[in-house]
Each structure stands twice: as structure tokens, then as C-alpha cells.
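Can't paste images in this forum, so I'm doing it all in text. The chain is below; anyone willing to post the predicted C-alpha cells underneath?
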Amino acid sequence: MGLDAFVYCRCWQDGLTTLCPVEPVGIDEEGYLALLLQWEGNKAAHRTFDAWQAEACPHKAMEQASEHVSNWAGVRLFQQALRAAGPEHFPTLATALPNLNGGSLPADRAAVALAELDAFARTDRITDEVELIDEATGRVLMQYVESYHGVFMFGPDYQAGVDPDGFFVLDRADPPATLFRAVRFGQRPLPGDRVELTAGGTRTVLAMRPVGTHGEPPPERLAVRSRSRSGDDFAYIVEPLRRLCAASVATGNPVMWV
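Text version of the structure:
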């Protein structure tokens, strides 16, 4: 689950594709190259169009570029960094990424976004990021995502996460009550799918899975830290966005978010 995107090649626009065996073909209201017939009553024609599009030109599915941009948490962290840096510094990027799948970025805006991506990547200090780490190894277990209110774990009776004030566990009542909060704490798995959390001489036992397992033994000591992040730390999303925007500029076609 996450955000993907592609840019059409120019083969259809420039008359370089094989002849489509069904008609009419054009750009639909959402910006997709499509068979402009309703689905009902024309299913066979749509299947013929899909088979043609897959092999109509040297580009797979008639796409100049196709990228997995990031999972949604990565998108939100990038948007969060842009807000922290100041939207006035990256105005196009600040509004370019969608909040849901769908939509597009026109080629003229992609050209501006490409320049902003280059400037973003060169920035030595973008933001300070709040993280929950395993103290023994430094492994990052959670990151604070503002738009998720820091929540990263959900259970039948609880939700847990990290924010600038520390790691927290809340119940699922309305309004939620804080069951545990600490900046540094220990944890110990207990029988019966429970965990013991200790901090500052207090001990809390909760019916929840240990934090930071992910196929590994759960860490015993955990801490929340703030770490400075540079443009290089966001290469995971900057690089696919660069490739998409460059393809958009080269073809004049929009980036299609999917």
C-alpha cells in the first residue's frame, strides 16, 4: 500500500503506436488514455484495448516512467519535512503530492517541482525528526508522523505511538485515556500476550504486543530521540519523484498518481 505514479510516453500522441483495433481512443476526463466507450455493453472492446495498450509501442503499457513513490508513511514524512522547512521554500512540492491515490501533476508544474527537488536534496538540514529507537542497537522502531498523530500500533483495546513528548499507549475510549507515557523505558514480554513497561520506578502491564518485534526479539530498552535530517535522508522519495518529473518534462505529459 502506498503511492505509485507513471508518465505516458509520446508514442500515441506522435502516431508511433500500432493501430488500435477498437475506437474511439482518447484521453478521458481523469487524464488516462482510454477507450472512450462505457464499460457496460463494451467489455470485449475494453479488453481488446487493454491488450493493445500493453504492447502498442516499445514502452511497457505506453509508460515513459513508472515508479513506486513510497508507502504512505514515507509520503507523510516527506510532506512533514516540507512543512518544517517552510512551504515558501518548496511551494510546488508542498502541494504536488496527493493525500489520496489519484490525480495528476501537469508537466509545467513538474518542471518547477524538479528544480525544487534538486534544491531539497542539497539542503544540509531540513528538519528534526522524532524517533523511537532500540537503545542497544540504535535501530529505529517508530517515527513521529504528525498527520497520524504519532500512532503506529493498533490493538482491540489500545493504540500506541510516538510524538515529541515520548512513547505513549492510549486506550480506545472516547476520549482516549493515557495508559503509559515515557521518553525512556524498558519492556518485557509476559505470558498471555501481555507486556510489562517500566519507567521512572513505575510498572505498567498491558494486553498488547511488544514494541519493535518485526520478526526479531523485542528490544529491552527503548528511548525517544530527536535527530536532524538532511535532504539526503529523503532520497527514498526524492529519487523516484525526480525520475517522474524528468519524464514529465521530456514528454510534456503529466505525472499520474495511482
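The first strand starts at residue 3 and ends at 8. The chain is about 25% helix and 35% strand.
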